[in-house]
Write a structure and sequence with these properties.
With about 675 residues, the chain is mostly beta strands. Helix content is about 15%, strand content about 40%. The chain has a 9-stranded mixed β-sheet with strand order 1-39-38-37-36-34-35-33-32, sandwiched between helices. The chain has a 4-stranded antiparallel β-sheet with strand order 4-5-6-7, with no helix packed on it. Strands 8-9-10-11 form a 4-stranded antiparallel β-sheet, with no helix packed on it. Strand 21 and strand 22 (about 275-280) form a beta hairpin.
Length: about 675
């Protein structure tokens, strides 16, 4: 399986694939996937879900959704919607919003703007992550670019939709100058932008380069910033629209994900959260009051009543369940009105005038959407609002899903202690003998309470996939989320290895090399790190599948290697800054190639600016020099977010062929 190759050798769909290519069972259908004698049509997993809801607006009675259009790709549609009635979403009864194939762009946070008559969205033109604000107006042929900057982090809008406020940067990475800016919208739809304040201004004492929400009223804009550019020092600031002054609202106290809550409050008060804490901020008194400390990190928030200070609905979650609560907001406390625990992941899509739209997701259920009508006492009634999902769920479900908790003792000096991990195990319903089975562990970004085409496709092909929530997961609070930073970066690797040991014991797997790892981005690093891990906890794993990952950490911060990443702030937090060269080398898989005894499948997009494909090129060359087994697949014309069902079918068949060849 060993092959050396040049990074400039090809320009095809798979621009660089160093080993023999393998045909699928039916070349006329690129969605047919095969593995060890099994064959399945993956097209239903890409196209049978009728839509993805992109935005629901109860106040304006509209739903924007995206769905596949045969021969054209994924497109955005809008339809009128009475929230009191159930509807079926289909393209025949909806209006197409531009002719843009959403698979060809990044399409991120969005809001309905009534003055502009459509969605204002964070998007780009070519997946290169030059994110700007674009207007996707109902019924128009193409989107309209509203800003021209290097990157937009977050945005919000005024209640009358006459102004949009956004945080942005000027430069190729988050180390560049950041600004708070305003886009004004006239009645005729014309727009104008202006800078309000930038972080090179002495009046702005923190870096404007963070992704949490903004809040605007007629007097001020509340926005996030990072003290010293440090992601562990998140702060909130208020910009005064009348005199241009900036004031610190909340210094963060080291809490993870400090976020102002959009959609609640008036000019005198607002709500914001810091990890598990919810605060009310009194602008006149310039005072933050702790209202409530939750037992989990806040994952969702919506107003659940009428008026300027309505009741609120809040979700907190673990991988296995979501707690949904309704509160009255008092001046110094939250008064609980109702609490419901649900086994699904719950998305609070929109809230207005006592109605809240929720999406519910689980490994067994793709989606269910309800509108909750919330009474003043916190009770609510529920009505299903989208038809036709149950049949699709039944058609595509291929796994028996087990929810297990795995406890292990981390005896390292960096992060010692007893760890309990929430883990989903996706077992095929039709299993080969145990000695023929393969197990694939998600090495990072796992433990998701959602229906995944990846898991169910692999179950249909006879592969077991395992999804643990390892240390670094945000859902357990700041301490757990930061428990893998820098010198503790290997904590999730030790968790992954503990999961592998559990699998060997639980299913009596005769050979640990039947187990492999997979991951993307940070998870790409983790998947390979598990194979190259030099510590005493190491286990003889059988393979790794790594996409878009970091493998040579000193190269990322080397000033002579411009463009290795555009998220230096994140990288510094997770692995360490340039002055910690010894640590970066120690955490680099490329420095521990001698520890690798199993094959590695690498794939990377050629236009990735978040993690340069140089990381995969250089790592594969080092593997070749050391005589290690690997495959490298470069995907052309894609950024860090690889999009397109045909492309993913190609990637999945290649990695299935790779896994089938592992001993």
């Amino acid at each position: 399986m060993k092959k050396t190759c040049s990074r400039y050798s090809a320009t095809l769909m798979v621009a660089l694939f160093c080993l023999p290519s393998y045909s699928v069972a039916d070349s006329s259908n690129p969605f047919i996937l095969t593995y060890q004698g099994r064959s399945i049509d993956s097209a239903p997993y890409s196209f049978a879900f009728p839509y993805r809801i992109e935005l629901a607006a109860i106040e304006h009675q509209k739903i924007y959704f995206s769905r596949h259009v045969e021969g054209e790709g994924k497109h955005l549609f809008v339809t009128d919607w009475d929230p009191s009635k159930s509807i079926s979403l289909d393209s025949q009864s909806a209006t197409k919003v531009t002719n843009t194939n959403l698979n060809s762009i990044n399409f991120w946070r969005r809001y309905l703007n009534t003055r502009l008559g459509g969605l204002v969205a964070e998007a780009d033109e070519d997946k290169a992550e030059r994110i700007n604000l674009w207007l996707f107006a109902d019924g128009t042929d193409k989107p309209r670019k509203l800003t021209d900057v290097d990157y937009v982090y977050e945005f919000t809008q005024s209640k009358d939709h006459s102004a949009i406020y956004y945080t942005t940067r000027y430069g190729s990475s988050d180390a560049a100058k950041g600004c708070l800016e305003e886009l004004t919208i006239e009645e005729d739809g014309s727009t104008q932008t202006r800078q309000l304040i930038c972080d090179d201004n002495p009046a702005m004492p923190a870096r404007i380069n963070w992704w949490t929400k903004l809040r605007a009223d007629s007097e001020r804009v509340v926005f996030p910033a990072l003290k010293d550019g440090d992601r562990n020092k998140q702060e909130l600031y208020a910009y005064n629209l009348s005199d241009g002054s900036v004031s610190l609202m909340f210094e963060g106290h080291g809490k993870g994900w400090v976020e102002v809550r959009h959609g609640w409050g008036d000019e005198s008060q607002a709500l914001f959260s810091a990890d598990r804490d919810l605060y009310r901020y009194d602008f006149e008194a310039d005072e933050a009051v702790l209202l409530h400390r939750f037992d989990r990190t806040l994952s969702g928030f919506q107003p659940a009543g009428s008026g300027e200070t309505p009741n609120i609905m809040v979700t907190t979650e673990t991988p296995f369940e979501t707690k949904l609560e309704v509160f009255t907001v008092e001046s110094d406390r939250l008064t609980p009105l109702s609490m419901t625990t649900l086994p699904e992941d719950v998305w609070l899509a929109d809230g207005y005038d006592g109605q809240v739209m929720v999406g519910k997701f689980s490994p067994e259920t793709y989606a269910a959407f309800d509108v909750l009508t919330v009474m003043h006492d916190g009770g609510f009634t529920s009505q299903s609002v989208i038809k036709g999902l149950a049949e699709i769920n039944d058609q595509l479900s291929q796994c028996n899903v087990e929810r297990v908790q795995i406890t292990h003792e981390d005896k390292s000096s960096q992060s010692p202690g007893t760890q309990t991990l929430d883990v989903f195990v996706y077992r095929p319903r039709d299993l080969p003998p145990i000695e023929e089975q393969k197990f694939i562990i998600t090495a990072y970004y796992g433990g998701k309470n959602e229906f995944s085409s990846y898991h169910h496709l692999f179950c249909a092909l006879g592969l077991t996939t395992v999804s643990p929530a390892v240390r670094g997961d945000w859902r357990y609070g700041t301490e757990f989320a930061n428990s893998n930073d820098r010198e503790k970066a290997d904590a999730p690797i030790r968790d992954t290895l503990a999961v592998a040991r559990y699998l060997v014991e639980r299913y009596e797997i005769p050979n640990s090399r039947q187990i492999g790892t997979t991951g993307y981005s940070h998870g790409g690093w983790a998947a390979v790190r598990a194979l190259s891990y030099p510590g005493p906890e190491r286990l003889d794993l059988g393979f790794a599948i790594a996409g878009g990952g970091f493998y040579d950490l000193p190269a990322v911060v080397d000033p002579s290697k411009n463009g290795e990443t555009n998220i230096h702030g994140w990288f510094d937090k997770e692995f360490g800054p340039a002055d910690q060269q010894e640590l970066l080398r120690a955490l680099s898989p490329i420095a521990h190639v001698d520890e690798i005894s199993a094959p590695i499948f690498l794939y990377h997009a050629d236009r990735d600016t978040r993690v340069s494909p140089n990381q995969s090129y250089d790592f594969s060359e080092r593997l070749a020099e050391a005589g290690k087994s690997y495959e490298l697949m470069i995907i052309p014309d894609q950024g860090h977010s690889i999009r397109g069902p045909e492309i993913w079918a190609e990637i999945r068949q290649r990695l299935l062929d790779f896994v089938s060849q592992t001993p």
